[in-house]
Predict the structure.
Amino acid sequence: MTDPQQVQHAVACGVDAIGMILHAESPRTISTAQAKKIRAVVPPMVSLVGVVVDCSTEQINQFVQDIGLDLVQLHGAETHEEAEQLTRPYVKAIRAKSPEQVSRDIAAWSNAAAILLDPYVEGQHGGTGTVLSDALWPMTGTQQPMILAGGLSPSNIAARIRACAPYAVDVNSGVESAPGIKDPLKVESMIASVLAEDAR
């Protein structure tokens, strides 16, 4: 998310967490000042997540302190040692290439608060609009909660939830009118579908 008003709308629709890209080569990356404006409108019981790619531990912890992040989402080549130095729990994003690689990486990040599974796209760390293959989703129990990402939209979210039964879903480009600009109707439709599947 990039705009406080869009964040307020998403919260009113029922999201559990708001993500902000703080360090990455992305058109959605926002400044610390803008992130603070978003922090000001995120209510208690909704998590604020800082998304970073290959950011130094010192800088991430500074984001945590300056903005008031609840979670950090790691999308780069961070090491376990670096992750363990963070002052907030972290979600580790895995770019899925094969079932064997996914299983190895999940096991390797046993201290992560959750694992986000995103399809591998050469040269990109997320927000690609590419749907994750069902064959790459672990069908047996994992130690960490699993978050489904990749090409989720109002038209496919119900089917994707039924196929994978994730702990949570991470939505970005599928509810945008342009990079960083969320479409209110798509956001409403997406969240309504997620809540309906949750109830089912």
Remarks:
- Helices lie at 4-13, 32-39, 57-68, 80-83, 99-108, 157-164, 184-199.
- The two ends are 28 Å apart (CA to CA).
- The mean pLDDT is 93.
